[in-house]
Amino acid sequence: MENLVIRDAKLFFRNFEGREQQFNAKGDRNFGVFIDPEVAEQLKADGWNIKTTREDEDGNPGKPFLKVKVRFGEYPPNVILVNPTNKIKLDEEDVKLIDRMDIERADLIISPYEYNFNGRSGVSAYLKTGYFVQALDEFADLYGDIPESNSAPAFNASTVEDEEDCPF
């Protein structure tokens, strides 16, 4: 089977950290991605585990989606965070940043894995490559030229001689 390529993917239920939740065991990293209905039908016919959301309050039909697993191990995914100043390859520890990040765009390559286990067979989806473009806020351009630092400057109160020297 060929890899599934999704440009400008719409993600939901992001759990790159592997948090234990009602429908997620601790350590299981995954996310949902909506699939075009026509593509979903073909994927379903090929054995992919396509699910559908519930219909909404207005009676509109549910949308097809795919649960994508994110596994680090022998063949870790290539996860890239993109912002205006650089591209950062995220490792197993840092990939959790995607959970709470505002995403402007996501482009994905998803690898199929055909399984046959205990009489059940199908195709599981694994993230092979993901480019996640961080959405910028209104201050990004204003402060874009200032280099980032991981440490705050130290303030020593004992060096303040009188109230006029106090920075606050």
What's the helix and strand layout?
Layout: E1 4-6, E2 11-15, E3 30-34, H1 37-45, E4 50-52, E5 64-69, E6 78-83, E7 86-90, H2 97-100, E8 103-117, E9 120-134, H3 140-143
Parallel strand pairs: 5-9, 6-9
Antiparallel strand pairs: 1-8, 2-3, 3-5, 4-5, 6-7, 8-9
Put simply, the count of helices is 3
Radius of gyration: 22 Å
- How would a crystallographer describe the biggest sheet? 9 strands, mixed
Q: Order of SSEs, N→C?
A: EEEHEEEEHEEH
Report the structural category. mainly beta
In helices, the fraction of residues equals 10-25%
Low-confidence runs: none
Distance from N terminus to C terminus (CA atoms, Å) equals 63 Å
| 3D shape | globular
Number of strands: 9
Give the averaged pLDDT, no decimals: 87
Q: What is the strand content? A: 35-45%
What does this structure look like?
The radius of gyration is 22 Å and the shape is globular. The chain contains three helices and nine strands. It starts with a strand and ends in a 25-residue tail after the last helix. The longest helix is centred in the first third of the chain and has 9 residues, at 37-45. The protein has 168 residues and is mainly β. Strands 1, 2, 3, 4, 5, 6, 7, 8 and 9 form a nine-stranded mixed β-sheet that branches. It has helices at residues 37-45, 97-100, 140-143, and strands at 4-6, 11-15, 30-34, 50-52, 64-69, 78-83, 86-90, 103-117, 120-134. A hairpin with a 2-residue loop joins strand 6 and strand 7.
